[in-house]
Specification:
The chain is α+β, with helices and mostly antiparallel strands. It has 10 helices and 10 strands. Strands 1, 2, 3, 4, 5, 6, 7 and 8 form an 8-stranded mixed β-sheet that branches. Strands 9-10 form a two-stranded antiparallel ribbon. Helix 6 packs antiparallel against helix 9. The longest helix is centred in the middle third of the chain and has 37 residues. The structure holds flavin-adenine dinucleotide. The site of flavin-adenine dinucleotide (FAD) has 22 residues, from strand 1, strand 3 and helix 10.
Length: 400
C-alpha cells in the first residue's frame, strides 16, 4: 500500500521529486540496520552514513551552500517518509536539519553560514540544539547557563540536558544568560571538541534507542566572539523561531508513524486468521483501521495548513501577524499529530494482539518511540496553553 502526500505546488515538483526519490532509497536501504540497532538497543550510525550517500543531511540548506535547498513542503514530506522508519531515525534529522541548521540558516551572518552549513550539509559535521537544562525545560527562561566576555571570546558555563544528537554533534546551537544578568538570553554556535566541553550519552530511555540523546557541560568553555548567533539578547527569539520549524518536523515524523501503523495494520489484518476468518473481517478490528486512517488524513491536513502558513510568513519575515499565525499552526500541528500518532500506534499494537507487544514488530517500536513527541519541542500542556493564549490574548498567558 502506498501512502503519500499530494504534491500541491507544481513549481517545486521537479526538485521535490528528486529529493523524495533519494529519501525513498535511503529509507529502503536503512530499514535492516535500523531494526537491528533497535533490537540491540544502540545508536544507528548508518543514518549519517546513508544520509551522506543520498545527500539528505542538508535538505533545507540553500544549494549555494551545498544543501538541497528543499522547500518546506518537500522537507516535511521527506521527514514524514523517514518517520515511517521510526521516530529515532527521524529525530536524527530533526536535531541536525531542523533545530540544528535552521537557526544558522535563519539568523547566521554570511561568514557563519559559510563556515558551518556546507560541512553540515555534507554530513561531515553533525548539529544539535541545546536549550533544555536539568532545571529549565518547559520554561527555558529559567536556564542557569551563563556567559561572560573575555577579549575575543565568550566564556560559557552550564549544563544542557536531554539533547538530541548531543553526544555525536560537532556543533551545537546553545543558549546562555550574561553572567552579571545584565540582559536577556543570547544564542551561540558552539563547537564541541575543545577543552572544557564534556558530554555523556543518556541511554536509559523508554524508546528511541537508535537516536542519540545526551547531556553536556561547558566549564569555562571558550567560544569565539564571532560565534554569537544574532545579536546579544536575541537568544530567546532565536530559540522560539527555531521551534516553529522543529515542531513541523516532529509533526511530519508523527504523520510517518501513523502511515506506517496503517500499512502494518492493514497487512496484518488481512493475513492473521482467528475464529475462522481473517481478523480484518471482524468489525471491531475494522474500527481500528478506520481510526488510524482518520488520524492520517487529519494529520496531513493540519500539517499542510501549518506549512502553508510558515511558507507565507517566511516570505514576509517582518510581518508579525503572519509569524504569529505560523507559530500557532505549528503548535497545533505538533500537538494534534503527536497525540494522533500515539493513538495510531496503540491501535496498531492492538491489531497485532500479543505480537503487538513485542519489539520484534513495528507497532510496539512506534508506540514506545512516539511517546516522546508529546514531550519534546513543547509538551502537550505547554502547547495547549500557548494555543489558548493566542485565542485569549497575550495578557492571559497561563505559563508566565
Ligand atoms: C528524547 C528527548 C530528546 C530531546 N531533545 C531535545 C533537544 O534536542 N534539545 C533541547 O533543548 N531539548 C530536548 N529535549 C528536552 C525537552 O524539550 C524537554 O524535556 C521538554 O521541553 C519538557 O521539559 P522538562 O523535561 O524539563 O519537563 P518540565 O518542564 O519539568 O515539565 C514537567 C511536566 O509539567 C508540565 N508543566 C510545566 N510547566 C507547566 C505549566 N506552566 N502549566 C502546565 N503544565 C506545566 C509539563 O507539561 C510536564 O507535563 C528532549 C527530551 C527528550 C525526552
Amino acid at each position: 500500500m502506498k501512502v503519500e502526500f499530494t504534491v500541491q505546488d507544481p513549481a517545486h515538483a521537479e526538485a521535490a521529486d528528486s529529493v523524495l526519490k533519494d529519501v525513498e532509497a535511503f529509507c529502503e536501504e536503512i530499514r535492516p540496520s535500523e531494526e537491528l540497532c533497535y533490537l540491540e538497543h544502540r545508536f544507528n550510525d548508518e543514518g549519517i552514513k546513508l544520509g551522506r550517500k543520498y545527500r539528505l543531511l542538508g535538505l533545507l540548506v540553500p544549494r549555494e551552500l551545498g544543501g538541497r535547498g528543499a522547500d518546506l513542503k518537500t522537507y516535511v514530506r521527506a521527514l514524514a517518509r523517514i518517520g515511517r522508519e521510526g521516530s529515532g531515525l527521524r529525530t536524527l534529522f530533526s536535531g541536525h536539519c531542523s533545530i540544528g541548521q535552521v537557526p544558522v540558516i535563519t539568523f547566521g551572518n554570511d561568514e557563519q553560514k559559510a563556515r558551518y552549513l556546507p560541512a553540515a550539509a555534507r554530513g561531515e559535521t553533525i548539529m544539535a540544539f541545546g536549550l533544555t537544562e536539568p532545571d529549565a525545560g518547559s520554561n527555558p527562561l529559567e536556564m542557569t547557563t551563563t556567559y561572560r566576555r573575555e577579549g575575543d571570546h565568550f566564556i560559557l558555563n552550564g549544563v544542557k540536558y536531554l539533547i538530541s544528537n548531543g553526544g555525536i554533534a560537532d556543533v551545537v546551537v546553545t543558549f546562555a544568560y550574561p553572567e552579571d544578568r545584565s540582559g536577556g538570553v543570547s544564542a551561540f554556535i558552539v563547537e564541541t571538541h575543545g577543552e572544557g566541553f564534556e558530554r555523556e550519552d543518556l541511554t536509559a530511555k523508554l524508546g528511541l534507542p537508535t537516536s542519540n540523546t545526551a547531556m553536556f557541560e561547558m566549564r569555562d568553555y571558550k567560544v569565539p566572539v564571532r560565534n554569537l548567533l544574532g545579536k546579544e539578547g536575541d537568544g530567546f527569539r532565536v530559540a522560539m523561531t527555531t521551534l516553529i520549524s522543529g515542531r513541523l518536523s516532529v509533526a511530519a515524523g508523527c504523520l510517518g508513524v501513523i502511515e506506517d501503523c496503517l500499512i502494518e495494520s492493514i497487512n496484518y489484518a488481512k493475513e492473521r486468521r482467528q475464529h475462522g476468518k481473517e481478523i480484518g473481517r471482524h468489525q471491531l478490528v475494522q474500527e481500528h483501521l478506520a481510526m488510524i486512517e482518520l488520524h492520517r488524513q487529519t494529520s496531513e491536513s493540519i500539517i499542510m495548513t501549518a506549512v502553508d502558513a510558515k511558507m507565507t510568513s517566511d516570505q514576509s519575515p517582518a510581518d508579525k501577524e503572519l509569524k504569529r499565525k505560523a507559530d500557532l499552526l505549528a503548535a497545533e500541528a505538533k500537538l494534534f499529530t503527536s497525540n494522533a500518532a500515539w493513538d495510531a500506534a496503540d491501535r496498531a499494537v492492538q491489531v497485532y494482539g500479543g505480537r503487538g507487544y513485542s519489539t520484534l514488530y513495528r507497532p510496539a517500536r512506534h508506540l514506545a518511540d512516539v511517546r516522546v513527541c508529546r514531550i519534546y519541542e513543547g509538551t502537550d500542556e505547554i502547547l495547549k496553553l500557548k494555543i489558548a493564549a493566542q485565542l485569549l490574548g497575550k495578557e492571559w498567558e497561563a505559563f508566565k
